[in-house]
Amino acid sequence: MGDDRGKAAKQPEGDLVIRTIAMPADTNPAGDIFGGWLMAQMDLAAGNLAAARSRGRNATVAVDGMQFLRPVKVGDEVTLYARLQSAGRTSMKIRVEAWARNRFETDSFPVTEALFVFVALDEDGHPRALPDL
Ligand SMILES: CC(=O)SCCNC(=O)CCNC(=O)[C@H](O)C(C)(C)COP(=O)(O)OP(=O)(O)OC[C@H]1O[C@@H](n2cnc3c(N)ncnc32)[C@H](O)[C@@H]1OP(=O)(O)O
């Protein structure tokens, strides 16, 4: 079965954090994969990295440059890659890429990317200094 999304021009950057399958329950009324589902997967991937770096609770404070590059179809294998781009006193900028692969094909393609900003939080929900590495 062919895939008309073209050849991947690059390789994913970052650590593989999540791999999942886009299911019919994740579609919008038109039957395509809902962008909000993909954003949630990206948020989960960035949050996982943020939790490991901050060694505790954190929250998404901003999402910059969200780009939907290609559609995701039901049945696609979706893989989330995340990497820490920079860290401030309490915040972390985490670059996330989502790639999709038609389950009957071998090539994967970038489908979305964005820069997530997370802030480490204390028990009261206030910004918390990141621990030393
Ligand atoms: C996993 C989830 O819970 S997702 C749910 C959605 N997210 C939320 O509910 C978070 C809601 N937001 C908040 O509670 C607050 O904004 C907080 C607690 C995260 C931050 O409070 P603020 O008063 O903005 O804190 P403060 O001004 O001290 O900024 C903290 C850090 O975030 C950075 N920051 C704050 N807003 C932004 C922004 N829009 N873009 C980039 N960085 C930001 C600051 O530069 C600072 O970084 P640094 O300490 O590394 O220098």
UniProtKB/TrEMBL annotation:
Residues 12-124 form the HotDog ACOT-type domain. InterPro entries: Cytosol_ACT, HOTDOG_ACOT, HotDog_dom_sf, Thioestr_dom. GO terms for biological process: acyl-CoA metabolic process; fatty acid catabolic process. The keyword Chaperone does not apply. CDD domains: BFIT_BACH (cd03442). It holds the Pfam family 4HBT. PROSITE patterns: HOTDOG_ACOT. GO terms for molecular function: long-chain fatty acyl-CoA hydrolase activity. Keywords: Hydrolase. Belongs to the acyl coenzyme A hydrolase family. PANTHER family: ACYL COENZYME A THIOESTER HYDROLASE, ACYL-COA THIOESTER HYDROLASE YCIA. This is (3S)-malyl-CoA thioesterase. It comes from Limimaricola soesokkakensis.
